[in-house]
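S1.2 Input.
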Amino acid sequence: MSSGIAPLLSSSPASEAITAPLNALLKDKIRDIHPGPEVGEQLLDPRLQALLWLLILVLLLVLIIRLAIRIQQYRRWCRQLEGDPQQLVTSIQDNLRLEALYRWPESRLLQGEKWLAFLDRQGGTRFSQFAHHWSSWLYGNNAPDHEQSEQLKQNYYRWGRACLLHKRRLASKARTRGNR
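S1.3 Output.
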């Protein structure tokens, strides 16, 4: 009996008027398999994307801050030579010694030509060319002439750039931290 009624209900105009909009409405709602997003449309969850962008921004901010700190240290390093030109060699020696002791504690034993050669190795400078004048400039009454003073300043700035701006992971510093 039900098999005979079904063709009648499906062919009646009243049933089509009711079922057609209902079918269209339910067609999108009642589905066993929902299609996913288009390929390439959205690979990650938007919350995860936001966290990744936040992480990238934080890392970028940290890098910018570290660079700004290094530039500020280098500018301070360069300003340390301002002052009495008669005290140029003494200022250079004191600043280099303090910075070298901070980075390489084993440098405290170096003096004279060995000290200047050490500075040359660490900073890519040419302080060793002044080895025969260095002691008389530090402990005597002699002072470098204008050309020598300019060369000393350039070597000082180069050493500062190499050690302050382009900091390398130093094995001796890592060793001293490990022994504490």
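S1.4 Remarks. The chain has eight helices and no strands.
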